[in-house]
Design a protein that fits this description.
about 80% helix; mainly alpha; elongated
Length: about 120
């Protein structure tokens, strides 16, 4: 900053135009104002980001507190555990393929049925 003031003083003493000195001075004022505006917007943006982060963290904590086991019936849990034990049994895989195939082809035949007007 002191170098700029020294250069401006030399230019004014050397007889270079006052227009140049005035232009530089005006530019410095504008640059200072733009810098302050940018810093203010940056601080506002950081504060908004902090608020959004706090909101998301609160929602994540709320979801983590949900006990999933309270939504699943014990019979369903037992059925899933028995399927895990039977994972290497080929009959289980054939039954699963049959269920999925019937669901797919049944859905296709339902979608392709002829509609009877009446």
């Amino acid at each position: 900053m002191k170098y700029l003031i020294t250069i401006l003083a030399c230019l004014m003493l050397a007889g270079c135009g006052e227009e140049f000195a005035a232009g530089v001075g005006t530019g410095m004022v504008a640059m200072t104002q733009m810098s302050e505006d940018a810093q203010t917007r940056f601080i506002e943006t950081v504060n908004a980001l902090d608020a959004e982060t706090a909101r998301l963290n609160a929602e994540i904590r709320a979801v983590k507190d949900i006990d999933v086991d309270s939504f699943i019936k014990p019979e369903t849990r037992a059925a899933i555990d028995s399927l895990k034990e039977r994972g290497n049994d080929p009959i289980t895989w054939v039954a699963l393929a049959s269920v999925l195939g019937n669901a797919f082809f049944g859905g296709q035949s339902f979608a392709n049925r002829k509609k009877v007007s009446g």
